[in-house]
TrEMBL record:
InterPro entries: C-CAP_CF_C-like, CAP/MinC_C, CARP_motif, TBCC1, Tubulin-bd_cofactor_C_dom. GO terms for cellular component: spindle pole. Keywords: Cytoplasm, Cytoskeleton. This is TBCC domain-containing protein 1. It comes from Acacia crassicarpa (northern wattle). It holds the Pfam family TBCC. It is found in: Cytoplasm, Cytoskeleton, Microtubule organizing center, Centrosome; Cytoplasm, Cytoskeleton, Spindle pole.
Length: 568
């Protein structure tokens, strides 16, 4: 068995140092955006449970595709939770040709999920994330990191939020640490995962399980070779088993044991590669690529922001400043805004995934996010985003102005969240939304779903019973307090677009408030123009208004935007 694959395996391993396309990576998306804090999705013995569940799903799904009714029946969860499972799975699937990925929001129910993709999705619900790490120089970030709040002690029993807000100042694990953690998880569970995809043949023992090329391709949900992943070769083309298969002839199934051994060797090689890079980094000179270093423009650092489609673009450590990126500046398919404070950040570009983590007292505008947004451990942040879906976890006193095609998901220990309809535009917004697949005719901004207040995927133990506590939901912004957000014209990008107004239709109450505010503003302007004042008195009034406006710019901190953004 081993002899049959040694030539291909040794070749791929020996070239891995020089050829990135031969290095195996975990797909980050299922682990970052695909975990749901639903108790009935987390099994103490996932293999045995899912093998029996597989039979039930296949019995209920003659075409091997499960809709929400089938998922609800098989897992004994509500229809709403079953729909959430399908929506989440669609957001993290690896193949753009998969019908569930191509389906519009109203079509997901009729299309359903491939049973084998669903099984892999359910299996990784047992994954435990790395805990946030301590900053190497806690004192250096103490002046910008949000301080603990009065209700921290109350929430500490319910979630790991206290850890992130503690005096030890914790940050997201590095990309290398997370990748190694995910690879180690796959290494440990690989045999069980393959057993869910394999088919038995005549005979007994381990050799009786085989993988067809179609079943092998489902592993692309969890792993990929090289940087491009699903945007490059399929997984079977990167393997020694199916790489030269005749497309007109069915490929011969491969023993699951051979696939298992081959993948284990590649995972071990990749882990060794990560360890070697970490060792070189520790022993070498300090590098700006270290995530602990506060950076204003991580995207311009080659070792930090990979030019490939796989690596995310980092925007990290911005403090008391303003910052913007257009489509031509974003090289990857995802963006991460990390540890930014008292700043205004504009990412006016279409991306697949976005993460906002550990930010405070900031306004963040994300252009068009075609798959999923996750906002975590933020305080007093105003986020404006057009996206397919959004998940909000462990945030406080934040306001979300949303144009979303699926209901917002709220999990963890949140406090005083507010939601409002989308309230801005820029010239290329509709073009970016079309590219990302976001429908302006659907906005479910106020249909938020609140799940558990405890993160079932962290590495902590929690007091008995607290996992049943529901997350605090969000309230709607009062229509009278709703205002448009104006993006400066000079941030429009290199070419002018066709968007002239907000592409999402405002609800009646918010539209009425907007019309009323515009009418009041018009009346004030008219009164000022027609005021029976002498010319010198008009100049004094104009000067007083300018002084008041300047005072407001400084008091609100918005003066930074004028200096920072016009200077770009």
């Amino acid at each position: 068995m081993t002899d049959a694959i040694e030539p291909s395996t040794s070749s791929s391993l020996s070239s891995s140092a020089g050829d990135p396309s031969t290095i195996i990576h975990p797909r980050r998306e299922p682990f970052e955006h695909g975990l749901l804090p639903i108790h009935k999705l987390i099994f103490s013995d996932p293999t045995q449970t899912l093998i029996s569940l597989k039979q039930k799903l296949l019995e209920l799904s003659p075409n091997q595709r499960a809709n929400s009714a089938v998922v609800s029946d098989a897992l004994q969860i509500s229809i709403d939770c079953a729909k959430l499972v399908l929506d989440t799975l669609a957001a993290v699937l690896h193949s753009d040709s998969e019908p569930l990925v191509r389906a519009n929001p109203e079509e997901i129910e009729s299309v359903g999920a491939d049973v084998h993709d669903l099984l892999l999705f359910l299996y990784i619900q047992s994954y435990k994330k790395l805990l946030p790490r301590t900053h190497k120089d806690s004192a250096a970030v103490a002046d910008v990191w949000p301080s603990t709040s009065a209700f921290d002690g109350y929430l500490s029993a319910l979630s790991p939020l206290q850890l992130v807000r503690s005096n030890s100042r914790r940050f997201m694990p590095s990309q290398a640490d997370e990748e190694a953690h995910q690879l180690s998880y796959l290494q440990k569970h690989l045999a069980n995962i393959l057993s869910l995809l394999a088919e038995p043949v005549e005979g007994e023992g381990e050799e009786s399980l085989v993988l067809t090329m179609d079943r092998f391709e489902h592993l692309g949900f969890l792993i990929q070779f090289g940087d491009k992943g699903s945007e490059g070769n399929t997984l079977s083309q990167s393997s020694p088993f199916f790489a030269n298969s005749d497309p007109d002839m069915p490929a011969v199934p491969v023993p699951a044991a051979q696939v298992h051994d081959w993948l284990l060797q590649n995972i071990a090689s990749s882990l060794a590669n990560i360890s070697e890079r970490a060792s070189q980094k520790e022993n070498g000179p300090a590098s700006i690529s270290d995530q602990d270093v506060a950076m204003v423009d991580a995207c311009t650092v080659p070792v930090k922001a990979s030019p490939s489609t796989r690596g995310p673009c980092f925007i990290e450590g911005i403090s008391k400043s303003s910052y913007s990126k257009n489509a031509s500046d974003i090289k990857g398919s995802s963006v991460k805004v990390l540890n930014c404070h008292e700043s205004a950040i504009y990412i006016l570009a279409p991306v697949r995934y976005a993460t906002v983590y550990g930010c405070s007292d900031a306004t963040i505008v994300l252009g068009a996010v075609g798959k999923a947004v996750r906002v975590e451990h933020c305080e007093r942040v105003h986020l404006i985003v057009a996206a397919k879906r959004i998940c909000i976890a462990n945030c406080r006193e934040c306001v979300f102005f949303l144009g979303v095609n699926q209901p917002p998901l709220i999990v963890g220990a949140n406090h005083k969240l507010q939601v409002a309809p989308y309230n801005t535009f820029y010239s290329q917004l509709e073009e970016h939304m079309a590219e990302a697949g976001i429908l302006p005719t659907i906005n479910r901004w106020d249909e938020h779903v609140a799940l558990g207040a405890v993160d079932l995927h962290d590495s902590l133990s929690h007091p008995a019973g607290v996992s049943d506590v529901q997350a605090e939901s969000a309230t709607r912004v009062d229509p009278d307090q709703f205002t448009d957000f104006v993006i400066p014209d000079w941030l429009g990008g290199e070419s002018s677009g066709s968007t002239k107004h907000n592409p999402f239709t405002l609800p009646d109450a918010y539209m009425a408030s907007q019309i009323r505010n515009q009418k009041n503003l018009g009346e004030i302007r008219q009164l000022l123009r027609e005021a029976p004042l002498e010319e010198n008195r008009k100049k004094e009034l104009s000067s007083a208004l300018h002084v008041c406006f300047k005072d407001w710019l400084y008091a609100s901190g918005n003066i930074r935007q004028l200096y920072c953004l016009q200077g770009e």
